[in-house]
Amino acid sequence: MTEKLDSILENRGPIKKIGVLGMGYVGIPAAALFANSEKFDHVLGFQRDSKSSGYKIKMLNNGESPLKGEEPGLEELLKKVVNEGKFECTPDFSKISELDAVTLAIQTPFSDPSSLLPDFSALTEGIHNVGKYLKEGMLVVLESTITPGTTDTLARQILEEESGLKAGEDFALAHAPERVMVGRLLKNIQEHDRIVGGIDEASTKRAVELYSPVLTKGKIIPMTARAAEVTKTAENTFRDLQIAAINQLALYCEAMSINVYDVRAGIDSLKGEGITRAILYPGAGVGGHCLTKDTYHLERGVTTSGGTLDYPEGMDSIFVLARKVNDFMPKHMFHLTKEALRRIDGEVKGSKIAILGWAFINDSDDARNPPSEPYRDLLINEGANVMVHDPHVLNYPGVVIMKDLDEVIKDADVVAILTGHSRYFDLEPSKIKKLTGKANTVIVDGRNVIDPDEYISNGFVYKGIGRGDKNEHPIV
Ligand code: SAJ
Q1: Distance of alpha carbon 283 from alpha carbon 295, whole angstroms
Q2: Fold category of 223-476 in CATH
Q3: Ligand 1 pocket test: which of 107, 195, 239 has the largest number of ligand atoms within 8 Å of its C-beta?
Q4: Is the CB of 290 under 6 A from ligand 1?
């Protein structure tokens, strides 16, 4: 039936007016870049005038970015397109009916990490809003990370029910997953290749027309909507799998009393046509809002696809196993802590433990799903007194995040490094020893930040992820 859609799109002519739902770290740069292209006449950013985020409307219409953190070029670009009258933010969703194309960049977080079920409520509300005002010949694109199958089932059903129109006949429908990293939003959108997947040929073609003008170095990679959904979830699943592989190797190296970094360097030296190894870094765990959930999107996608999966009977998916290995790492940090204290006849109960690093990633204030949280929970359940330092994270529910590192380390029995913030690479063993006032302080390095020998020679009891060569060192 794409001939019908082809002719409807032909009659409508090229895309000129665009709408973006979701003025967040994906939608705002996307809207600004669409507005900055001379291919398009006008862009509307749609933002609910809610208590929590209605303030963004005024800010954006003043050319100001409501996003936290540095985003090179974004404020200047927003001011430019607002002053040229090419972009405006509005809570009036009825204006969708005036547009040629609408994208939805709405978060799909977990309702709660244990359920591993995504909360699609905000996204489906957005899709209902689009459906209500959908007109023949429009293009609808989902940019959020979604379970494979969502575009051509859930989204399609809502849009058709609300509008009475048929996807693939009366309007075009596609998925073009975002691949942006905070701190480089504009650069990522322009320079990363863009996966564009329509529910049919005509939809894919129309979505390619929408995204091509904003790409500088990036190329368009067209495919079906479901292949696009699988690409997005699988690219993060593969990263999580690679991290789990080096985490498991680190545990093996500890058991075999060797240094995982020697092994890593050895493996990584094998380079050349198609024989290179993608070997990443072991650590105290995997946090964030991408790798911790996208595997489960992919798993749900295959189980709900209705297709027949041929896979070893009763065997866990290696992707889910990878998740479990990565989620074990904070517990391994706890085991290392316990073992180190035991070496000096100490125990977790009653000990003062300084956690250095709450953010899930180095030199960032992003504390979504931080590996430090399960580690802290285990310590507290065991009766430890825990203090947390982070130079960037300002606050976190139920946790006091200290800014004074000396105060956190003072009198500590254990210093544990959970995040590889640059700040921690300047730690001095002699200064820490003075602050703790102990002959033998335990130090547990979860991010390969310190030099073990410098601390061991200063009387520290050292444990490091993957450092089987040092973890049973003689205590000075
Ligand atoms: N981590 C390791 N070892 C590694 C790499 C990461 O333990 O070798 C841990 C980090 O400490 C962190 C977690 O994994 O806790 C995630 O780190 P990340 O570098 O993957 O950062 P994310 O979660 O922000 O991933 C994002 C993703 N980008 C998008 O979804 C658009 C991912 O696809 C990118 O590959 C990644 O950024 C990136 O490369 O920066």
Answers
A1: 19
A2: Rossmann fold (3.40.50)
A3: 239
A4: yes
What Rg, from alpha-carbon coordinates, does the chain have?
25
CA of 436 to the centre of ligand 1 (A): 33
How far is the centre of ligand 1, averaged over its atoms, from the C-alpha of 280 (Å)? Answer: 10
Helix (H), strand (E) at residue 381: helix 372-381
Residue 239 Cβ contacting ligand 1 at under 6 Å: yes
Residue 472 burial by Cβ neighbours in a 10 Å radius (0-12, 13-18, 19+):
middle
pTM over 0.90: yes
Please name the amino acid found at residue 314: G
Q: Any idea where the domains of the chain sit in the sequence?
A: 2-218, 223-476
Provide the pLDDT for residue 436.
98
The pair of three-digit structure tokens given for residue 110, joined into one six-digit string: 């977990």
Question: Is 280's C-beta closer than 6 angstroms to any atom of ligand 1?
Answer: yes
Q: Is the pLDDT of residue 114 over 80?
A: no
pLDDT of 242 over the 80 cut = yes
Quick one: which of 84, 92, 106 has its CA closest to 34? 84
User: What is the CATH class of 2-218?
Assistant: alpha beta
Contact of 386 with 351, CB cutoff 8 Å: no
Q: Are strands 172-175 and 194-198 parallel, antiparallel or unpaired?
A: antiparallel
**CA of 291 relative to ligand 1 center, distance in Å:** 7
